[in-house]
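Re: beginner question about structure tokens

> Can someone show what the tokenized structure looks like for a real chain? I only ever see the sequence side.

Sure, here's an example I had lying around. Input first:
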Amino acid sequence: MAARSILTQQIRSFSHSAALRKKVTVVGAAGGIGQPLSLLLKLEPLVTSLSLYDVAPVTPGVAADLSHMPTGGKVVGFSGGDLGKALEGSEVVVVPAGVPRKPGMTRDDLFNTNAGIVANITETFAKSAPNAALLIISNPVNSTVPIAAEILKKHGVYNPKKLFGVTTLDVIRAQTFIAENQGWKNANFKINVVGGHAGITILPLLSQLSNAKFSQKDKEALTKRIMFGGDEVVQAKGGAGSATLSMAYAGYLFTKQMVRALNGEKGIVECSYVESKIVKDLSFFSSPVSLGPNGIEKIHDCGPMDEFEKKKFEEMLADLRSQIAKGIEFVKNPPAKKA
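And the corresponding structure tokens:
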């Protein structure tokens, strides 16, 4: 009886650990965001299988490099036409693929390139890993997430509870800039950043921080800096790149939270750009989202705003509505392919 009891415990223990095993795939793993993101995920114990994909032939080399680290789980690299193989069995798919923003590049320029990249990735995702949580980093997120949704609908596999635009970079910028402004040594506090993930569609709700004191001048300056933090990095890099390291860290944080939630951990709430009915006439919106084993458990509203935030909220709506419509239109009426 004692031997049987020990065996039963071992079986239960194995079953529990097996349930907690998560395969994460990074699509765009050889790029400026993809490589540091993959490094951080290789360091994460919750990620027990890491699959890396990029069109670049160097991707298997990136995987081999990471595989020499005695941390985390197995890592495998794929390139070229092997996206389907990379995605098979994935439970979380993170997509930083695409071109970075450069000085002088309009959002239309960025959209014209990255929209097609996200569309092609989603086509393969729909066939190879339709039950996985799909985390879109590729900009412009306000448009690329609706693109992914429309393509998944075409394939009959759309699950709005498992499609996310990663807006965590806006949150960690807010934490960093607010802590600097307030003279806080610890930036580990909750701040809701709602709306979208581009310029004026990014709205940090500073008034919800009960232990912070902002002058009106500080509030305006902080809000603008959080909205346009990406420009700050592009300019500081002299046109040689955009936010890659901070974005990789933000992508890692959200992916880790997603894995924790899928494993059944309770009480995980993160801001994310998802299909939402929080705002009338907007089909996608970023606000706090409760995550669980099936993806989204509950979408929370924005909470209280002061008059300054209400004004900024109204100012964002037209831009966000237009950017969502642009993504949907791209799928419904795709641009003609160049000869």
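Each token stands for a local structural state, so reading them left to right follows the chain. Residues 53 and 82 are 8 Å apart (CA to CA).
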